[in-house]
């Protein structure tokens, strides 16, 4: 279990996160949802160890990790912009993190992961030869081969569109569930959160507005902010889809 107890973060006099309390069960997919600037990426970075906690404590399976260096926490992240090495092919990118370890790079687990992410046909391609969806799958595979205790993802679908986005979404869920991998996803998109996560953390100006299942978020929003944010964002998305199809039809 991952536990955050009264976690706060200040940058100088600016309190970005205030009194965050969360209990995340092993194997759960959690979405950190909220508008830009609400503190969700800062929260992700504190769990990862990239950003220090100002106040409060973070525990993993009962042991404090908030003062443990990032490299020793055993957590890992998939970045929004992939962060792949352009001079290496897809296979070399996936296995890069294992170079300085004693782990075998030719295991059934790695083969199964490559198959699960449908990457076998693309292993010998250089990064510039891959589509956005393929790059994201390589990035996910590279992270998971390191066997993280917790998988963190920062807006993993933001650069993708349409059916590719839906396919990557389904693959993330399938990989996380098949490996029983605790997964925390930052997103500003309620639809992504509602369709991917077991539970959603809705953040409003640095505080948790609601932490609940997607079903309860929809049926019983905790306050006006949650209701307005969810409904407004879904309405904007529907409007953009209708506009796109209208323009295509008109063309």
From TrEMBL:
* Molecular function in Gene Ontology: ATP binding
Look up keyword ATP-binding and say if it applies: yes
Question: Origin, by domain of life?
Answer: Bacteria
Question: Which keywords does this chain's UniProt record carry?
Answer: ATP-binding, Cell membrane, Ion transport, Iron, Iron transport, Membrane, Nucleotide-binding, Transport
- Please give the InterPro entries that the UniProt record associates with this protein: AAA+_ATPase, ABC_SmlMolc_Importer, ABC_transporter-like_ATP-bd, ABC_transporter-like_CS, ABC_transpr_FbpC, P-loop_NTPase
User: Domain ABC transporter: where?
Assistant: 2-230
Q: Name one Pfam family in it.
A: ABC_tran
Q: What name appears for this protein in its UniProt entry?
A: ABC transporter ATP-binding protein
